[in-house]
Specification:
The protein is built from five helices and eight strands. By secondary structure, the chain is α/β, with parallel strands linked by helices. A six-stranded parallel beta sheet has the order 5-2-1-6-7-8, sandwiched between helices. A two-stranded antiparallel ribbon has the order 3-4.
């Protein structure tokens, strides 16, 4: 089964992430809420998302894809954690699918991840869009089905 890391921190848009986790589970994937530290991460909606595992305990290599959440405070907290940035860079370097929701694009920029392929043009393994947009979710599911997006690969790596 595909393992998908959903990054979380306090101030995350939890509703969208929970719905996405359910969608991934229904598709036979194994979603995991990954944070900087253990414990509940209160969402903007007020409910808390329980962190399943920390970025330290489960390195990027153990995941098949990553979801970067929306939520200004959460993105700020995740951006301040070097291990989270390294986690994201590793996912990118290994040509794995990345879904970036809303303000999560700030985290992408902070990690220095380019939005386009080395040759120019859109990266099919990098899905960026509005939280809760069904078309965005489906594009990510399609990227996930492909496993790896080798058209992203360069030597040396870009990030």
């Amino acid at each position: 089964a595909m393992r998908v890391a959903l990054l979380v921190a306090e101030g995350v848009d939890g509703q969208v992430l929970t719905a996405l986790a359910d969608r991934l589970t229904a598709a036979g994937a194994v979603p995991r809420f990954v944070g900087s530290r253990f414990g509940p991460a209160p969402s903007v909606q007020g409910n808390a998302i329980e962190v399943d595992v920390t970025v330290e305990a489960m390195p990027s290599v153990l995941y098949d894809a990553v979801v970067v959440p929306d939520g200004k405070d959460a993105v700020g907290r995740l951006s301040a954690d070097g291990r989270v940035l390294e986690f994201l860079k590793d996912q990118y370097r290994h040509c794995k699918p990345i879904l970036v929701l809303g303000g999560g694009t700030d985290l992408l920029a902070r990690a220095g991840i380019p939005r386009e392929l080395p040759a120019g043009g859109p990266d099919p393994g990098l899905v960026i869009g509005k939280p809760g947009d069904g078309a965005v979710t489906e594009a990510f599911m399609a990227a996930l089905a492909k496993h790896r997006h080798f058209e992203r690969e360069t030597d040396p790596p870009r990030v």
